[in-house]
Predict the 3D structure of the following.
Amino acid sequence: MAPYLNMPIRKIAISTGGGDAPGLNAVIRAATLSAIQRGWEVYGVRDGFHGFLLPEQYPNGGLIPLTRERVSGITHLGGTILGTSNRNNPLRYPIQLPDGTIEEVDRTDEIVRAFRLHHIDALITVGGDGSLAIAEVLAKKGLRLISVPKTIDNDLDKTDVTFGFDTAVGFATEALDRLHSTAASHGRVMVVEVMGRYAGWIALHAGVAGSADAILIPEHPYDIHKVIDKIKERDARGNKFTIVVVAEGAVPVGGHTSVVEREKGKAERLGGVGEKVEAEIHAISGKETRLVVLGHLLRGGSPTSFDRLTALRFGAAAVRGLEEGQGGVMVALDPPHVRYVPIEEAIGKMKMVPMNSDIVLTAQDLGISFG
Ligand code: F6P
């Protein structure tokens, strides 16, 4: 164990980075209250690490004191009271050169210096794969930190689940329930695009729970003709409507992921596959087809009790871990336990849906098509 991990802690900071997920505020509350109980001072870092990198825009490096009063009544709130950002990754920070071209530079040294300057002994960083990659570098540079995994996509390895996922699945399932009656009334095909990046967890779980007829996920390139076969099969049985759930990262056989934006210093933004699927279904089957893109609605709203509990457990476990001398680790759910895993192991690979998993087999037994 590095000797600095044994030093007493007086002051910690908490940051939230990447796309928001329901449950972030619950982590902030649990970590703050656990730290205050130990006599530690707690600060929140505004908007990811922007405060340290843009000091002219953020007084005090973007640090705000977190007190019992400040974190009171926030467990059930979506979003993050600290703000977040998935732009300007400090590992690949975009800088405009005099000739107008963009160069990416590593600014993590500045973050380490800022922590020393503000006498912060340890950091709890809450984020997805991008934030974990930043955390790993900061930890290697000597920052005492513990990461808390977060993403509605559930694509982080080494943790059974991330908070935010259950809330997203619940909302998507309710949307599918609502779409059934209108689809049935009109005898239409409804295509529902959901988030999830390169993994199909949200589409699969919501699609099965919400009785979809076809679920298209990135793990299994789809053949649109198989979706048409499903529509025809249902029509022949007298079910004139069909519900198709499409993960934003779904890919046609021999095709590629649909991307709406690629920008330096930022992860590519997926989207557009729902439109493609809708157009193809209409063109081939001639059926009236409508598209609903759930998008950021999946990231909003109040976290479910499962997500609140996971987030509260993660926040408290992060503080316990710091007290025990853990560093460079991610808190992970390994039911019924919460464990600590080295960050480098967690970011090694993305967690994809195994096509032989029980939920996929269940879907197949229910007659759901994967295209
Ligand atoms: O990773 C969470 C996520 O919501 C993805 O499902 C989605 O592709 C992406 O973030 C969208 O990010 P943005 O906030 O840039 O729109």
